[in-house]
């Protein structure tokens, strides 16, 4: 990023369908072990899609610590708090010598899990003899049952509050609501806050869970999610000819961003550096992306310009790669626009093939994947590459992880409404 102040990553926390913690996620990724299975949160037998990427083995009391609000927290808050605690522990920060006004929280979190059963019961209780809803009866009964402490937890900004409260972060705070690009944008904006001097430390990332009846119904109506119910582990297949939509998943990814000189002074372990941040808007349609890939290409080019790099400097691209027909084709076009002949040689993979699509949290998790690929010299695969698509003809690292020297990586995140965010990560050189 341009400016005298550099931004490095000193902590990573992951809660995903692959497991809790960095090492469990990385092991599943490099071995191509899918985290997608049958949906068990509710009876989905009446839905066209009955699979999802659910977070497993999540012990809230162990992961969140001693809290008196565990029973009212939404899934987005639970996952984000857990991931933030993991990232904080990983960073080695102890709070000593930290000005709380220089510690901030930038997240990209979606809404909490709404209680549709509660609403349905209140409606049924309000029915009159002619089966019409009595509004006065509904309001009266609703007010009797209202739990303000729980209901406010549905708000998407609640994780920001919880994390700020947990770490006494009194500096800049925000929650981005740019759909599937949200947590990537949060990381980019958090880095900018450090470059400007507004903060020294930023907790940045995102969390989301849309695995509830309304979320499943909405994506089914859009024909956006896979219906490969008999083979859940093969349902997410980015860039494959037989892809039929993304797989709805949940979780959180959190990073600790730190001003480089501060991290060096405390001899922190540094995963890498944020070099570039690019964003753009398609200004096109609420769900579709520009067919020629102009918006996505512009965000990639903006990130390269911000990092002062050429396309040939990028050694790995973590694609948005949702496994929808349109996205994968258009993202391929956009990569070709920006990278030219290098698009044929740069390794590209979509880790959504393994963990599904974490919606608002996806960008943060995938940023972490880029950092680990750089640091460990392994590129995770795109699994379920069985039937080549002539329109998706680049190197998607099919089915098997690949050893590679990666100095700089690009992470793509493209949200509903044509909201495009790209981040460039680099190996740290002191």
The biggest sheet amounts to: 11 strands, mixed
Q: How many independent structural domains?
A: 2
The chain-level mean pLDDT equals 93
CATH class category label of the largest domain: Alpha Beta
What kind of assembly state do the chains in view correspond to? Answer: single chain
Order of secondary-structure elements: EEHEEHHEHHHHEHEHEHEHEHEHHEEEE
Structure commentary:
This protein has 430 residues and is α/β, with parallel strands linked by helices. The protein folds into two domains: 7-112 and 155-426, Peroxisomal Thiolase, Chain A, domain 1 (3-Layer(aba) Sandwich), CATH 3.40.47.10; 116-146, no CATH class. 33% of the residues lie in helices and 19% in strands. It contains 14 helices and 15 strands. Strands 1, 2, 5, 6, 7, 8, 9, 10, 11, 14 and 15 form an eleven-stranded mixed beta sheet that branches. A two-stranded antiparallel sheet has the order 3-4. Strands 12-13 form a two-stranded antiparallel sheet. A hairpin with a 2-residue loop joins strand 1 (7-16) and strand 2 (19-20). Helix 8 crosses helix 14. The longest helix is centred in the first third of the chain and has 17 residues, at 75-91. It is globular. The two termini are 15 Å apart. The mean pLDDT is 93.
């Amino acid at each position: 990023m341009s400016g005298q102040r550099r931004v490095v990553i000193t902590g990573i926390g992951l809660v995903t369908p692959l497991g809790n913690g960095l090492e469990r996620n990385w092991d599943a990724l490099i071995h191509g072990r899918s985290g997608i299975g049958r949906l068990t949160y509710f009876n989905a037998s009446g839905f066209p899609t009955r699979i999802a990427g659910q977070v497993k083995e999540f012990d809230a009391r162990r992961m969140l610590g001693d809290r008196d609000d565990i029973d009212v927290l939404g899934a987005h808050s639970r996952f984000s708090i857990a991931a933030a605690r993991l990232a904080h522990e990983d960073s080695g920060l102890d709070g000593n010598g930290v000005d709380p006004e220089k510690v901030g929280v930038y997240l990209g979190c979606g809404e909490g899990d709404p209680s549709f059963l509660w609403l349905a019961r209140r409606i049924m209780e309000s029915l009159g003899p002619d089966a019409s809803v009595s509004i006065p009866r509904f309001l009266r009964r609703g007010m009797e049952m209202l739990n303000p402490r729980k209901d406010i937890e549905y708000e998407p900004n609640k994780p920001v509050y919880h994390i700020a409260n947990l770490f006494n972060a009194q500096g800049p705070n925000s929650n981005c609501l740019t759909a599937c690009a949200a947590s990537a944008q949060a990381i980019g904006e958090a880095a900018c806050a450090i470059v400007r001097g507004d903060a020294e430390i930023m907790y940045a990332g995102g969390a989301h869970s849309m695995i509830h009846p309304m979320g499943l119904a909405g994506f089914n109506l859009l024909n956006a999610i896979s219906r490969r119910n008999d083979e859940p582990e093969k349902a997410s297949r980015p860039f494959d000819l037989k892809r039929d939509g993304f797989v709805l998943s949940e979780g959180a990814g959190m990073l600790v961003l730190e001003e480089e000189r501060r991290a060096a002074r405390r001899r922190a372990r540094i995963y890498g550096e944020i070099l570039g941040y690019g964003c753009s808007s398609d200004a096109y349609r609420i769900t579709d992306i520009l067919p020629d890939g102009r918006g996505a290409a512009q965000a990639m080019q903006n990130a390269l310009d911000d990092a002062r790099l050429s396309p040939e400097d990028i050694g790995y691209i973590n694609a948005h790669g949702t496994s929808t027909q349109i996205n994968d084709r258009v993202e391929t076009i956009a990569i070709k626009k920006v990278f030219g002949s290098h698009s044929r040689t740069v390794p590209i993979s979509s880790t959504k093939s393994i963990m599904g699509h974490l919606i608002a949290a996806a960008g943060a998790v995938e940023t972490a994947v880029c950092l680990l690929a750089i640091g460990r010299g392994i590129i995770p695969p795109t699994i379920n590459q069985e039937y080549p698509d002539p329109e998706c003809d680049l190197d998607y690292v099919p089915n098997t992880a690949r050893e590679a020297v990666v100095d700089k990586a690009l992470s793509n995140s493209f949200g509903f409404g044509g909201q495009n965010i790209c981040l460039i990560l680099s190996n740290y050189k002191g």
